[in-house]
Amino acid sequence: MQKNQKKAYICGLAAVCLWSTVATAFKLSLRHLGPEPLLFYASLTSVFVLLLILTIQGRIGELSGLTLKEARFSLLLGGLNPFLYYLVLIRAYDLLRAQEAQAINYTWAITMSLLAIPLLGQRLRGLQFVAIGLGYLGALIISTRGNLLGFEMESPLGFALAMGSTVIWALFWIFGVKDAMDPTLRLLLNFCCGAVYTGAWAILSGISLIPNAPGLLGAIYLGVFEMGVTFVLWMSALRLSRTTAQVSNLIYLAPFLSLFIIHFLLGETIHAATLAGLGFILAGTLTQKFADAQAMT
C-alpha cells in the first residue's frame, strides 16, 4: 500500500509539473501558429498518444467493442472538449497575458457549481455562495489588475473568452457525469471528433492549416503534455492513491508553478493583482470543495 501511495505521488506531481508548463506553451506556440491549426495538430497528436498508450496497455482491442451509442456520445463531448473549449481558451490566451488567462481558468469548478443548479437539479448552500463570490471576485481583480472601482480591462474580449471557456469545460464535465465508458477510451474518441471539427471549421473559415516548424512543435508538445500523457498520469495517481484527496490537493501547486515558469520563460512581470486574485480563486475553490464534502455527510 505504501509503495502504491509513493507511485501515486510521483504520477500526481509529474502531471502537475507538466500542466504548469501549458500556459507558457500556449503563448510561445501562438507566436508561430493561429488558434485553429494549433488546436488541430495538438488534437491529432493527442489521438496518436492515446492510441499508443492503449497499445502499450494491451487494450487497443477494446475499441472494436464500442457500441454506436457510446461512439455517438463523443460527437457531443468532442464538440465541447477539445473543439469549443480549447478554441475559446486559446483565443483568450492570444488576447491576455498568460498569467491572467491561466488564473481565470481556475474558476471552472465554481462555474460548474452554478450550472449544476439548472442542469442537475442541485441547490446552492450558504458556503457555496461564499465560494462563488470569492472566485469571481478573484477573476475581476486579475482582469482589472486590482482597479475594481475603475473597472478598466486591457482586453474585455479576452476576459469574456477566458470566462466562457470555464462554462464550456464545466458543461463537458456535467454532461459526462453519468458516462460509464473508460476515461482513456472516451478521451480518445473526443479528440478524434475534436480534430475533425477543428479541421472542418478551419476549412470552412478559409484558415490555412499548413504549419511552420516552431508552431508544429508547440502543438505536438501541447497534444502530448496537456491533452494526452498528463491525463493518464493523473488518472493513474488517483487510482493508486489511498484516498482521492491525498493526490487531488496537489493540483493547487499548479497555478503557482505556472506563474514561476511564465515569469522566467515569457518574461512577464507577475503583478500583485494576479497573486491576490489567484488567492481569492483558490480560496473559493477550497470553500466549494468543503461545501461539497459537507453536503455529502
UniProtKB/TrEMBL annotation:
Transmembrane helix keyword on record: yes
Chief location: membrane
Pfam families linked: EamA
Membrane topology of this protein: Multi-pass membrane protein
Domain EamA: 7-144, 157-286
Keywords (A to Z) from UniProt: Cell membrane, Membrane, Transmembrane, Transmembrane helix
Xref: InterPro entries: Diverse_Substrate_Transporter (IPR051258), EamA_dom (IPR000620), EmrE-like (IPR037185)
GO cellular component: plasma membrane
Key word Ribonucleoprotein present: no
Protein localization: Cell membrane
Annotated protein name in UniProt: EamA domain-containing membrane protein RarD
Species, as recorded: Desulfomicrobium norvegicum (strain DSM 1741 / NCIMB 8310)
